[in-house]
């Protein structure tokens, strides 16, 4: 090549440099994803361990879980709901020991009472009667140790962003499995006024099936903002794909407590469509609410970080678009 080829050489060099930068960024992103996935895995392994004995009502295991979550919140710098404690204690009729929500928040950069609330219940069924060869500990790995692990890391992600436009509240709820007591208590004793809650984004179960392309929203009935959710997620390649059977779960999550009071609330699950659009093979998870709900070799953690990003995208969307979303039929979620 001669002098006349110099512009081509410069252009080629710039292209190579650009591709190298992309490779470094991609490697960095991959590394960050791996770190997040590993942290979620570590949280889940502890919360679902036999040491915590299924995190049942009024148990030492539940106390250990609450303490662990509070320490995670403290370590990442979340503000505590009370000056000296992240634990929001409350009584349940018939139980001697008090239960504890774990509540931390990131304050608004403005003086605002508006908030987005993130919830995930940390309780499970504890220790029950042994059946056959299966042990008697209901570890609650998918329901909902992994959801709480995701809540912790979602909070960590938000601490790395600029101060939010509105307050972000993170609530690990107690006693969900036996009457949604934790979420009920939080709504009676919120950090910021109930009427100023923009939306509750609940995590109950999380993607441990590998990378996925589709998602569904619970509930899809009684709310008017499914289009907004799809608008927020479609640019990132997420495909809305809600199955009919989900309508039977309207009252099954902490979201029902919010929705019954007219406060927008959703839980987001990933589906079974792989990134290439093909159907994933069924994964033999142990059934929830049983001693078989444990971490196994079938769990695939690779999709965890993307599921976290989905929640983060939604939260950022509603931080910028907080108005005009409504619960159109609160009676669908009545707890009476």
From TrEMBL:
GO BP terms in the entry: proteolysis
Top-level lineage group: Bacteria
Coiled coil start-end: none
Sequence ranges assigned to domain Peptidase M28 in this UniProt record: 101-308
InterPro entries documented for this protein: M28_fam, Peptidase_M28
Molecular functions (GO terms): metalloexopeptidase activity
One Pfam family per UniProt: Peptidase_M28
Protein name: Peptidase M28 domain-containing protein
Lineage: Bacteria, Pseudomonadati, Bacteroidota, Flavobacteriia, Flavobacteriales
